[in-house]
Amino acid sequence: MSDQPLLEEIQPIQLENGLQVMLKEIHTAPLISHWVWYRVGSRDEIPGKTGISHWVEHMLFKGTPRFPAEEVERDISRTGGLWNALTYLDWTTFFQTMPADTIDLALELEADRMVNSVFDPTEVARERTVVISERQGRENSPGFQLKEALRAAAFRVHPYHHEIIGDMADLKTMQRDDLYEHYRTYYRPNNALVAVAGDFQTESMLAKIKALYGDLPPGEETPRHSRPEPPQKGEHRLSVEGPGETTIVEVAYHTPPAADPDFFPLLIMDSLLSGPTGLNLFGGGGISNKTSRLYMKMVEEDVAVDIHGGLPATIDPFLYSLHFIVHPRASVDEALVVLDQEIARIQDTPPVEDELNRAIKQARALFAYGSESITNQAFWLGFAEMFADYEWVRSYINRLASVTPEDIQRVATEYLRPQNRIIATYIPNGIGTPRNA
Amino acid sequence: MHNSSFTLLKKSSLPGPDDITRRVLENGITLLVRPNFNTLSVSVSGYLMAGSLYEPLQKMGLADFVSSTLMRGTETHSFQEIYSGLESIGASLGFSGGTHTAGFSGKSLGTDLEILIGSIGEVLRQPTFPADHVERVRSQLLTALDLRAQNTGEMASLAFDEIVYEGHPYQYPNEGMPDTVSAITRQDLIAFHRRHYGPKDMVIAVAGAVEPERAFQSVAKALGDWDNPEQPAVKTVPPAPALEKTTSRHYTIPDKSQTDIVLGAAGPSRSSPDFYPAKIGNSVLGQFGMMGRIGEAVRKNAGLAYYAYSSLSSSMGPGPWTVSAGVDPEDTERVIQLIVDELERFLSHPVPEEEFADSQSSYIGKLPLALESNAGVAGSLLNIERYQLGLDYFHRYEDMIREITPRDAHRVANTYLNLHHLAIATAGP
Fold first, then answer.
1. What's the whole-model pTM score?
2. What is the CA radius of gyration of chain A?
3. Do B375 and A29 make contact, defined as CB atoms within 8 angstroms?
4. How far apart are the CA of B218 and the nearest CA of chain A, in angstroms?
5. CA distance B115 to B378
6. Of A27, A32, A18, whose CA–CA distance to A381 is shortest?
7. Is the model's pLDDT at A177 over the cut of 70?
8. Cα separation of B316 and B417, whole Å?
9. Hey, what's the torsion of the CAs at B71, B73, B79, B84, to 10 degrees?
10. Within 10 Å of residue A107's Cβ, how many Cβ atoms?
């Protein structure tokens, strides 16, 4: 096995109708993971139709004339396969990981439901309450409420302002024809990518994909909304009040998109501040962050109970977020003072090489762990194509390794400014105190 | 089309007697190793008989507190040194408290196995429970309990356990309650560790890029001379008490948008011959496809929940067999009725042959995916030892599942689930 399995080159293929195809043979287990990606997500939604991409994703599980929902669900499930779909800010994806000798079913299903999904009005009505229930479940979590309020404050103009699940008002009012039009607009071969990794021969897999998709008409170029967010001109602070005893804070800074050269220094900066995070979506596990700078200062000095950071890879500028639970005996202001001291330290003094090398070793280890999963490997093939290209994944480690201490100091100074951030605090009202034994 | 998607397991690719090595150290530690050089990493998992069963009721949460504090400092290394040693090589290690056992699980690159196992040995044998760290961990545990009190799913599960396991050790949550966790002293932690942590009945599983001999040497060096004459005998638990009638309980958590429902009874233990018939029956009931018959009734046909499913836990004792759903508070009674109706159908007639065969196939087909990662293999090796399944377990698995009949599942379901003796727990506004 190669030391860096991701560094292997993948030849991207494009069919005449615009469909992109990415294939990677892996023969370690008799499994194949198959993904179909669409360039549509909550970024493509306007007020009145927020949540439409996610709801459309649900409707693709309701069947086509050739593959009625119950039959296909049964046929995939009886193989023991893993199948699901995800809707994100910039993309929507459907996947199956199945025993290699049964994958044809998944290939046929996806090609068919790209164009032949029914959107039966009765099924739309049933799914409306399911999606509303999904949103209600999230609303139960203080973290969701905080994140939703923060995003709305961070993006006034750009569609990243609303949650992927959508606003309740829109979930109650959108109609079947709205959903169907969204589907017809974005679900077409020239807006899609098929990625397959696992135990197959490239030539025969490509022949199957060509046979299934080759005759589908491309359709017009799909529209993508682009209303750039104007620069923020001062710190925003907001609060959300609700039941409980726990104070939670999320601090978010506007940051550049994944394709920007500054994204990689920011990733290393995050690793130093709040600990390593990899690109693994399916298992592989993580690495703890107990020796990260913010954990050592905030948790070990009892101003926070826990802290995590994250820098999502997106098409447009998004947010670098730090999320922490305030220690019961500390105040929000005390915690923010310590946070700001650590941010000032990384802005004032470049980190030492050892710290960088450690972050690189952690990133390498996370990739090695994630590579054990065929599902992760297939995910990576399509994922980066949604906001950059596969080269982004292939060069990921090398680009991290080329980050210098001065780069980190520079991006910390440029992006971690108070004027560029939003501080959102969940203030508990003490209702629902935990009961004792 | 149905037959074309039927899969047969390739036994040669599954762990078995030819590639799992099992050895018992003189002090009682059992070690299982399964190499896999297709990967660069190695996963190590294990357990000791030091779960919450061994703690006094007034110190509920003690076993969990001990496992959460093990890595906070040892006789030779500080908290920062322990984590720095692991994190700087991209390794991870964590301990968790269960009901029967305290467990651990770690991961590193194969080249770093000795560091990982060395850390496991050190924190198991020489933890010092530094006073400042004990208080820090206590704050974290109490915060987790605050968050639990706001979580409708977790509080409904807690209410369910209180109904089904009244007076039984499974009544009590491993994490304890705010007052019991507040009452635990540093001396309690030290005393629990001294008495209950030891090599007897401990099991370690290693899977990944390592030769068995190297794994043995590493474990022998870290733990081979460990001894604890104080370790008590392994505790077992009694059967669950019988519920005299269907019993409902609601936890009010204000200002929530959704109510969680947990409904069911105690199921068979993992070692019972009833376990697999119940497991396949449960798949039909609330797992298969988009969550089985329960998912079809509650989500697909009625549109009343995003999640509605059933689950049967794998436990050394009579673990819970439950149906769960998250619903609009106004729909709670309606959904409970839909679930009870499905249970009635499930208990009245054996599942039709074809529907049953679907769940059997699904269970068989899932195996390669579950064993894809080193962590998955290590976890499965632990189960082989914990439940005495035999090293040829995965090779026998397909036949074992196929032999189960719908009548077996029907009989077993009626042994554990009874419409007039259900626990119905809810938590929400």
1. 0.94
2. 23
3. no
4. 21
5. 18
6. A32
7. yes
8. 19
9. -70
10. 21
